[in-house]
Specification:
This protein has 144 residues and is an alpha+beta fold. The chain has 2 helices and 5 strands, in the order αβαββββ. It has a 5-stranded antiparallel sheet, with helices on one face. It starts with a helix and ends in a 13-residue tail after the last strand. 26% of the residues are buried. The protein binds Palmitoyl-CoA (PKZ). The site of Palmitoyl-CoA has 17 residues, from α2, β2 and β5. InterPro entries: Cytosol_ACT, HOTDOG_ACOT, HotDog_dom_sf, Thioestr_dom.
Length: 144
């Protein structure tokens, strides 16, 4: 049997991989009607704010103190979010520089669907934070 045939056979016996959230649950928040746009979906800006908070809490923990968001270098909106969805933001420290930290943040919703509950990845992005002194100047991120 050729190598490629062998690989095909293995693949046909495996169930498709189910994606799970990446990182640690940093915040949960219920999307409310006040967070909707005129189309009936949750505003992207509200989602970004929740993700920034989730990344900021994680960066604050890792940097052992005050941080500020300096950049969002990647952001994807995969699916719409609706009122009543429970937004769950997961954060993963992917890079620590001298004064900066990059946190990959994924937002998933926990959505009731009759008696079932669906968990869906709705957004993800890379948030860069800089560790700050009390006067607002940058500082070195301490070793863990
Ligand atoms: C037990 C109790 C717990 C309490 C728990 C409380 C938790 C509480 C959580 C709150 C969570 C709040 C989360 C929201 C946080 C905001 O909303 S902050 C508000 C918005 N952000 C701001 O106002 C920041 C404004 N910017 C600044 O003040 C200045 O840019 C800064 C941040 C002081 C940096 O200035 P600078 O000295 O010119 O920095 P510079 O040398 O150019 O760059 C510094 C680092 O950033 C990197 N960088 C800069 N620009 C970029 C860029 N565009 N892309 C990538 N990297 C970049 C550089 O590469 C460098 O990295 P390192 O090589 O040092 O690792």
């Amino acid at each position: 049997m050729s190598e490629s045939n062998s690989r095909d056979e293995t693949a046909s016996h495996q169930s498709p991989e189910v994606e799970t959230p990446r990182g640690v649950l940093a915040i949960r928040q219920v999307a409310m009607p006040a967070n909707l746009n005129s189309g009936g979906n949750v505003f992207g800006g509200w989602l970004l704010a929740q993700m920034d908070l989730a990344g900021g809490i994680t960066a604050n923990d890792r940097a052992q103190g005050r941080v500020a968001t300096v950049a969002i270098t990647a952001m994807e909106f995969h699916l719409p979010v609706f009122a009543g969805d429970v937004l769950c933001c997961y954060a993963d420290v992917t890079h620590v520089g001298t004064s900066s930290l990059t946190i990959h943040v994924q937002a998933w919703v926990h959505r009731r669907n009759g008696t079932d509950v669906d968990d869906l990845k709705v957004t993800e992005g890379d948030f860069v934070f800089v560790a700050l002194e009390q006067d607002g100047s940058k500082r070195v991120v301490p070793q863990p």
